[in-house]
Structure formats: structure tokens, C-alpha cells
Amino acid sequence: MATGPAPNPARQWRPDDVPPFPAVALKALNLMAGRDTSLIELCNLIRPDLAFSTEVLRIANSPLVAFSKDITNVLQASMLLGFRRLRSVVITVGLRAYLARGFTPLLESCWRHSIACAIIGERAAKACVLDKEFAYTAGIMHDIGRVVLAVSMPNEYAGVVERGAGQPRDLLAVERALCGIDHCEVGGTLVREWVLPEAFSWITTCHHDPAAQATGEEWIVRQSCLLADALGFGVAGYRSMRSYSEIVDGFPQPARNCLSGDEQGLAAEIESQVTMIESA
Asked: What does the domain layout of the chain look like in residue ranges?
């Protein structure tokens, strides 16, 4: 009976190996329960940080947002974007800053997968009258465990990608063999270590588990992760991916209506949005 790949004893993942996530982005994540009354609080987090202020202004002035006038300061951007959208922008900037430590092709694929998942999740959640900003943020963060493995163990994770797997959930066994832990376990550890809202616990640990009960945005993020892979925004190669139509059928009915149909057209649309975020 097959037991899977043999464990690699040479090096094991440790939380101490993890470079810190940008503090501004972590604080933004911890404002998950905030309402518009927290807008000034979030704005005050961003303004003292030159890198974040600059990036927020660049995105606010990009075609991605398409305001009718130039945005010249963070407070103005905050008021026009609103609390939830601003928080999503800050977290997107945070992930980009985290990956900028060494933007290898592997990290680029992690980035593009997370952004594609976020875009799909936002679109599907909006169709289902769910919290589209949370769905976007959850899409950004769902694979943070994989991002951290790729950052802290680049050689080992390159081996994971090279080996590939039959299906996305099968990749977890390859990760455990080569890294000593899988990215879902790492994600759960990071939620605790970084003291993130409990809402991210399921998102980071269970998005590859079809048996895990999911409702609302959780369900959306799980399907969005699969759909991002099917549309060409994957990190590792899979030998037995479900078809585009099969994955779309797993979304709630209202989301199917805005996702089904032109697979190539949707892929091109998401590619365009990913490129705009990258160039903003």
C-alpha cells in the first residue's frame, strides 16, 4: 500500500523562520469587525507609513478604481474608497510588500493565484449578496500558508511545485513530505501567531477540504481557489483537475450565473485585473 512521498528530514518548517508580515496590513486585518466609523482609525494607520501611503495613492489613482478626479492624499482616498474597500487595498499592498523580499517566479505565481482568487470571490459574493469585501480579503489571505512556505523555504517549496500532484488537495501530502508541514497547517498557525480574527481560521486551514462544512463566504473562497487554478492562475501543476464547468457548478446558484459561459473570456478579464493591480 502506497504511503506517499518519503519525509525530508533535512529541514523542517518553523514559525521562527517566518519573516514578519507588514504591521500595517496585520492591523488592517484585525479591524475586520469595524464599520465606517473605523475609517479614520484605518487611515491613521496608513498615513505614517510612507510605503503604504504611496501604494494606496497609486491604486486609488489607477484605472482599477477609476475615480473622476486625482486623489492627492490618504484621507481623500480613504473617504472615497470607504472603510471596507480601503482595508482590502491595504491588505493587497501588504501581500505585495511581503512578496517583494524576493519576487521569484514561484512567489509571482503565489501572488497571482491569491489575487485571482480574491477577484473571483468578490464577484461571486456580490452576486450572492454576501460581503464582497470580506470575500476579496479572504481570497487574498486563504493561501498565506503557502506564501510563507515559499518565502521561508524557497528550495523545498520549489521541489513541491516541481513534483506537483493529482489534485489541489493532494498537494498537501507533498508539502508535508518536503517541508514537514502543509500550507493549511501553516495558515492556521499564522492566524494564531499573528492574532488574526477567527474568521480567517477556516479560510486558511480548510479551503482544500471538501468535507469541511462551509457557508457563505467560506464556500465562495473554496470554490474561487479551485476556479483560479482552472483558469490558469495556479501555483503547482495538477494531473487531474476538475473542469471549469464542474467547478462553477459548485458555486451558489446566483454566482453560477455570473461565472458560467465563456471560460476564456473570464480568464482574460481576470488577467486584465491582475495586471492592473500589479502595475498600479
From this structure: 20-100, 102-280
CA distance 89 to 72: 16
Question: Which grid cell is 168?
Answer: 489541489
pLDDT in tens, 129-170: 999 999 999 999 999 999 999 999 999 999 999 999 988 889
Look-up: residue for cell 501588504? Answer: 94
- Cell 493532494 belongs to residue: 170
With contact defined as beta carbons under 8 Å apart, do 72 and 60 qualify?
Answer: no
User: What CA–CA distance (Å, rounded) separates 46 from 40?
Assistant: 10
Residue holding cell 457557508?
Answer: 215
Per-residue pLDDT band at 251 (split at 50, 70, 90): very high
| All three cell numbers of 15 | 514559525
Sign of the dihedral defined by the CA atoms of residues 172, 173, 179, 184, in that order: positive
* Residue 23 · residue 192 · CB < 8 Å: no
Query: Which residue in 161, 148, 153 sits closest to 229, CA to CA?
Result: 161
Q: The domain at 102-280 falls in which architecture?
A: Orthogonal Bundle (1.10)
